[in-house]
Amino acid sequence: MLRVEGIDLFYGASQALRGVSLEGEKGKVTCVLGRNGVGKSSLIRAIVGHQPVRAGRIEWDGQDITRMAPFDRAARGIAYVPQGREIFPLLTVEENLKTGFAALKRGQRFIPAEVFGLFPVLKDMLGRRGGDLSGGQQQQLAIARALVTRPSLLVLDEPTEGIQPSIILEIKRIIGTLAGRGDMAILLVEQYFEFARDLADSFAVMDRGEVVLSGNAEAMVENDVRRYLTV
Predict the structure, then answer these.
(1) Per the domain annotation, does 15 fall within a domain?
(2) I need a labelling partner for 186 at 20 to 30 A (CA). Which of 59, 77, 91, 175 fits?
(3) Residue-wise pLDDT tens digits, 104-127
């Protein structure tokens, strides 16, 4: 289980997160929603270890990871799909996937067959450079690279951004499939309400660095949530 308790995060003198708490469970999707600039990506960066917190606590599977380095978190099953995909454009698809090996023990350094089962298009593009793929294909590659690490917590930062509708539907199906296996917690940051609503088991809405609405999916009132998504 992921447990975030009252974290504060600063960039210099500017406070980005104020007492943020959140939980995520294996087999379930937790969605974080909000406009641009309200702290969603800062929360993700704190969870995966890319930005230190000033106060509060982050636990994964009962272990305090608040001060743990990003590579140690990755070795403990936390995988991150960043906003904007951040694949390596000059590496081939296969080489991009193999960058996920860094978090694995030597005997696990192979691409699981499941990756190509979920993303069959990548199997036909193994020799193609990442930068030559479409935006939707790059997003699939970014998720597949994360899955190579055999995560038990998958963190996705706005996976629908700049993606064509057909690929959005495919990514939604894949996230649902992964959650349905029951062995992976999924934390999804999103601005697209319908996408989040269809996947969420629980949700948290952020505004100005704080969680202003949260609860189980059944408690999600569309009008209340949309108030915090519109400019």
Answers:
(1) no
(2) 91
(3) 999 999 999 999 999 999 999 999
